[in-house]
From TrEMBL:
This is Prophage CP4-57 regulatory. The lineage of its organism: Bacteria, Pseudomonadati, Pseudomonadota, Alphaproteobacteria, Caulobacterales. Gene3D superfamilies: 1.10.238.160. It comes from Asticcacaulis excentricus (strain ATCC 15261 / DSM 4724 / KCTC 12464 / NCIMB 9791 / VKM B-1370 / CB 48). InterPro entries: AlpA, DNA-bd_dom_put_sf, Prophage_regulatory_activator. SUPFAM superfamilies: Putative DNA-binding domain (SSF46955). Pfam families: Phage_AlpA (PF05930).
Length: 92
C-alpha cells in the first residue's frame, strides 16, 4: 500500500556535509559549477542554511556518469611538455 507521502514524491534536501559525501568536489568547484549552470542550484532553508535537492544531485550524477562512459564529456589533460617543473624530454 502506497502512502500519501510516497504518492507526492517528497524530495529530500541535503546539507553541504552530505553533498560532499555524495559528490567529492571542493566547495569552490561546486560553487563555480553552480554559477555556470553545470551543477544543481542550492536553495536556502534559512539565511544561513544552504541545501540541495537530493533528486537533482542524483540526476546530475547519473548524467555525468553516462556522459563519461559515452565519451561525450571533454576531459582536459595538461600538455606535460609545457610544464616548468620536471619537463618531459622530446624523443626526436
Amino acid at each position: 500500500m502506497v502512502t500519501y507521502l510516497e504518492q507526492r514524491s517528497i524530495r529530500r534536501a541535503i546539507r553541504r556535509d552530505e553533498l560532499k559525501q555524495i559528490v567529492p568536489l571542493s566547495d569552490s568547484t561546486i560553487y563555480d559549477m553552480e554559477r555556470k549552470g553545470e551543477f544543481p542550484q542550492r536553495f536556502y532553508l534559512t539565511s544561513r542554511s544552504p541545501v540541495w535537492d537530493l533528486s537533482e544531485v542524483e540526476t546530475w550524477l547519473e548524467t555525468r556518469k553516462e556522459m563519461s562512459r559515452s565519451k561525450k564529456m571533454k576531459v582536459v589533460t595538461p600538455d606535460v611538455r609545457l610544464r616548468k617543473a620536471r619537463p618531459v624530454r622530446s624523443t626526436d
